[in-house]
Specification:
By secondary structure, the chain is an alpha+beta fold. It has helices at residues 3-8, 22-31, 46-58, 85-94, 97-107, 246-254, 257-267; strands at residues 37-41, 64-68, 72-77, 122-127, 131-136, 147-155, 168-171, 178-182, 188-193, 200-202, 212-222, 234-235. It has 7 helices and 12 strands. Strands 1, 2, 3, 4, 5, 6, 7, 8, 9, 10, 11 and 12 form a 12-stranded antiparallel β-sheet that branches. Helix 2 (22-31) packs across helix 5. The longest helix is centred in the first third of the chain and has 13 residues, at 46-58.
Length: 268
């Protein structure tokens, strides 16, 4: 175990349950397919996450931003100011310096920065009938200009049955095939690297009426060191996935329509 690991984990020992050293977690993360990721069970305190579950149900309707269209039905926490005691405790933990250093040990990404404003993160709820089609995550935090590097999802679903749907899917680099599925069970944490090949989605939620799929999402950033073109979520095509390459798909999102038509005409 490296000296840096020895100096960080004791500060988190009473708040998370690693069960091994971060060198081992780093090996799992970097060898994972179809892109860098790590799945950890019982990583956080059950009591802390139980408090978060109770908090979600107590939040008023105006605390949520509701996304509802043909490719996405999901509710996001409006801002970090909506958090109550359990949510604030969880946010303080995952944004702490010791936690950031631990993530660096696992991922190899240095200079990680949190987002205390929880732009697009915090509590996520997908109701019965909701879904999130296969997509690439937004690559920047638009207000600060920071580059999104990591996403962490903490699942908050007690007694979740696979028949309820809502599984997290990891797809190959061309969004042609689902390569891995993660069940969103209580106190399961998924960490993955955001990038131009990290396609993922959420299967339709078919849980009983009155239930929903819940999670706490966190994004981590770095100061950009190379030019990138900011973009929102990029969805995979539904009907022409086999005809359009990954590069063409991103080009269509970022180029003005007149330039895209010219490029497409030249390609034909």
């Amino acid at each position: 175990m490296s000296q840096s690991v020895l100096s960080v984990l004791p500060y988190l020992d009473d708040q998370i349950h690693v069960g091994t050293d971060t060198d081992t977690l780093a090996q799992r993360y970097r060898s994972a397919q179809p892109y860098h990721h790590l799945v950890m069970d019982n990583f956080f305190s059950d009591d802390l996450l139980d408090g978060a579950v109770s908090e979600i149900s107590a939040l008023p309707d105006e605390a949520w931003v509701k996304h509802e269209d043909e490719r996405l039905i999901k509710y996001n926490l409006r801002s970090a100011t909506e958090l109550r005691e359990a949510g604030n405790r969880l946010m303080q933990l995952v944004h702490s310096a010791a936690f950031l250093f631990m993530l660096t040990e696992i991922t190899g990404i240095r200079g990680l920065l949190p987002d205390p404003y929880l732009g697009g993160s915090g509590y996520h709820v997908i109701p019965k009938g909701g879904r999130f089609d296969v997509h690439l995550d937004r690559n920047t935090e638009f207000h600060s200009g920071l580059t999104r590097r990591l996403a962490m999802l903490i699942y908050l679903n007690h007694d979740w049955d696979p028949k309820f749907g809502g599984q997290f899917e990891m797809w190959d680099r061309d969004a042609q095939h689902c390569e891995k599925v993660v069940e969103p069970v209580f106190n399961r944490t998924l960490l993955f690297e955001i990038g131009p090949e990290a396609f993922h989605g959420v299967r339709p939620v078919t849980c009983p009426r009155g239930q929903s799929r819940k999670s706490f999402a966190v994004y981590y950033h770095t100061v950009g060191t190379e030019a990138i073109v900011p973009h929102n979520s990029i969805f995979s095509p539904k009907t022409y996935a086999s005809k359009v390459t990954h590069l063409q798909r991103i080009s269509r999102e970022i180029l003005p329509p007149i330039l895209w038509r010219g490029v497409n005409a030249f390609r034909k």
